[in-house]
Task: inverse folding
């Protein structure tokens, strides 16, 4: 457990902001390949061995493989959060049955010209049936500088615990950058956002990114063999946490921000859980999969925008994180 008494404001060196753009244009990084490669290779070999002999897996084979892949992913990623769902055949479709899993994990990237790392919140998702298996690994549009965790740990705990605590909070609140970046105008770039954390605030900024950047890897395995599909994000920005301020450094305005954002999260706890779990659903958008209707999502996004404008865009000369550079 991390105790946050006496945590200090993190001041970010200007080189980190400059190095971020270079780090983000690298696409599928060596770290991503390293973490996912063994999991993908092992699972591919096992599945292909079955598909070479028969066109479909038996139900017990599919279920056992899903559990095995889920456990292998947990070992490989040490996930911040994960879940596995296995569906049994129905009376009307006795040959059906499928599975789906999602793992959030931290994919560290070195920032050129610094000794710091950018800790990307990444996803590993997999789903399949008795005839096909798919796996996908990619970074999300949310990250934080390791330097923020360094300053947190100096007074509050170990490096591993500090990094993990920040990562878990960003996964828990991923609804916020998801809604902020949905159909976001270019005016969002270089604006600030804060997320309540340990009686203080994680303060970050929306930074520009290339919509053409390759964000990860998508593999499909079936009797026909192994296919690869590209992954891209159309968003023009991403959210990067640059600093943490503890309760002793909070201004009155920052305390109001923390209260109002936390209140909004409490009201939308159910929607936050749905978005966290199905943000990369196998069938496409939330409304395509039936987990949330399009009008419900649009209403939620509109409600978020109202909160964002009220909380983060008041007529004030004091920015949220006035002390970071």
Result:
């Amino acid at each position: 457990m991390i105790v946050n008494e006496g945590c200090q404001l993190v001041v970010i060196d200007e080189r980190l902001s400059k190095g971020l753009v270079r780090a983000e244009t690298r696409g599928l990084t060596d770290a991503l390949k390293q973490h996912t490669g063994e999991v993908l290779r092992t699972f591919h070999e096992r599945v292909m061995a079955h598909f070479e002999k028969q066109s479909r897996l038996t139900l017990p084979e599919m279920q056992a493989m899903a559990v095995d892949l889920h456990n292998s992913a947990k070992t490989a990623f040490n996930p911040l959060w994960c879940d596995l769902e296995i569906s049994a055949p129905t009376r009307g479709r006795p040959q059906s049955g499928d599975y789906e899993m999602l793992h959030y994990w931290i994919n560290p990237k070195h920032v050129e010209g610094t000794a710091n790392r950018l800790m990307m919140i990444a996803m590993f998702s997999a789903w399949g049936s008795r005839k096909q298996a798919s796996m996908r690994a990619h970074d999300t549009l949310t990250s934080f500088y390791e330097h923020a965790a360094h300053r947190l740990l100096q007074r509050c705990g170990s490096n591993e615990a500090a990094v993990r605590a920040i990562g878990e909070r960003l996964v828990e609140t991923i609804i916020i950058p998801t809604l902020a970046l949905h159909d976001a105008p270019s005016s969002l770039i270089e604006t600030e956002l804060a997320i309540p954390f340990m009686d203080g605030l994680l303060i970050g900024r929306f930074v520009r990114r290339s919509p053409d950047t390759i964000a990860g890897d998508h593999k499909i395995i079936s009797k026909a063999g192994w296919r690869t599909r590209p992954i891209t994000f159309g968003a023009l920005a991403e959210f990067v946490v640059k600093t943490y301020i503890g309760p002793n450094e909070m201004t009155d305005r920052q305390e109001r921000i923390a209260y109002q954002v936390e209140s909004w999260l409490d009201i939308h706890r159910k929607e936050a859980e749905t978005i966290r779990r199905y943000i990369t659903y196998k069938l496409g958008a939330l409304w395509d999969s039936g987990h949330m209707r399009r009008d419900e999502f649009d209403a939620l996004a509109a409600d978020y925008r109202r909160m964002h404008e009220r909380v983060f865009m008041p007529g004030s000369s004091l920015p949220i994180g006035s002390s970071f550079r």
The radius of gyration is 21 Å. The beta strands are 81-87, 98-110, 117-129, 132-145, 192-197, 200-208, 216-222, 225-229, 237-245. Residues 215 and 231 are 6 Å apart (CA to CA).
